[in-house]
Design a protein that fits this description.
The protein is globular and about 45 Å long. Helix 1 runs antiparallel to helix 4, helix 2 packs antiparallel against helix 3 and helix 4 packs antiparallel against helix 5. The protein has one domain. The protein is built from 7 helices and 2 strands; from the N terminus they run H-H-H-H-E-E-H-H-H. By secondary structure, the chain is mainly α. The protein has a two-stranded antiparallel ribbon.
C-alpha cells in the first residue's frame, strides 16, 4: 500500500512539474540531483570493497550520474522539453511494469540471482516486449522521429541493465535500498536507476554519433 500511494502521488506531480517547464523543472531537477549525489555518497561510504576499488567505484559512479544529469537538464531547460522527458519516463515505467507483471505471473529461472534474486528471465523478456512496444507507440504522439524501433528496444535493454547495475552496487554496500526517502520504493536512486542509464546512453550517443 505505501508503494502504491507513493506512486499515485509522485507520478502525477512529477509529470505536472515537467509539463510546467522552467523554472519549476530546473528547481525540481536540482533537488533530485542533490538527493542522488547524497544517496550515492552514502552508498560509497557503506561500500565493503577494498579502498582502492571503492575509490574507483566512487569516481566512476559520480561521472556516470553527472553525465546523465547534465544530459537530462537539456530538455528540462526547454519549454517543449516535456515531450522528450515524458517519452523517456514512459519507456522506463512501461519496461519496469511489464517486467514486474511478467516476472510475477510467469516466474521461471532467475536472471541474475547473485545480483537481484527476485528478477527472472520471464520478467526480463516481458520488460523488453512491453517497454519496446509501449515506447514505440507513444513515440508517434510525443516524438514521431525519435528513434528506429530497434533503437527503442536497445534503450529498453539499457533501462533494465541500469536497474541491475544499481542492484549490484547495493550488494557491494550490503543494503536493500539507497535510502528510505520514498515509502515503499526506497530512495531516489532506486527509482531513477533506469532513467539514469537511459540518459547516460543517450548522452554518449549524442556526443559521439
Amino acid at each position: 500500500m505505501p508503494r502504491i500511494l507513493s506512486a499515485v502521488l509522485l507520478i502525477p506531480l512529477s509529470l505536472w512539474i515537467i509539463y510546467s517547464g522552467p523554472p519549476y523543472t530546473l528547481i525540481f531537477g536540482g533537488i533530485l540531483a542533490v538527493l542522488l549525489f547524497i544517496e550515492w555518497g552514502s552508498l560509497c561510504l557503506k561500500n565493503l570493497l577494498p579502498l582502492w576499488q571503492k575509490t574507483i567505484v566512487l569516481l566512476l559512479g559520480t561521472a556516470y550520474i553527472s553525465i546523465a544529469i547534465l544530459w537530462l537538464f537539456q530538455p528540462l531547460s526547454k519549454p517543449e522539453g516535456w515531450r522528450l522527458l515524458y517519452w523517456i519516463l514512459f519507456l522506463v515505467w512501461s519496461t519496469d511494469t511489464a517486467a514486474y507483471v511478467g516476472g510475477r505471473s510467469l516466474k521461471g529461472p532467475k536472471l541474475a540471482p547473485s545480483i537481484s534474486p527476485q528478477k527472472t528471465w520471464s520478467g526480463f523478456i516481458s520488460g523488453m516486449i512491453g517497454g519496446t512496444f509501449f515506447a514505440y507507440g507513444t513515440s508517434f504522439w510525443l516524438l514521431p522521429s525519435i528513434l528506429h524501433f530497434w533503437g527503442i528496444a536497445l534503450l529498453v535493454l539499457v533501462a533494465q541493465l541500469g536497474d541491475l547495475l544499481e542492484s549490484k552496487l547495493k550488494r557491494w554496500s550490503d543494503v536493500k535500498d539507497s535510502s528510505f526517502l520514498i515509502p515503499g520504493h526506497g530512495g531516489v536512486l532506486d527509482r531513477l536507476d533506469s532513467l539514469l542509464a537511459v540518459a547516460f546512453a543517450l548522452a554518449l550517443w549524442q556526443w559521439f554519433f
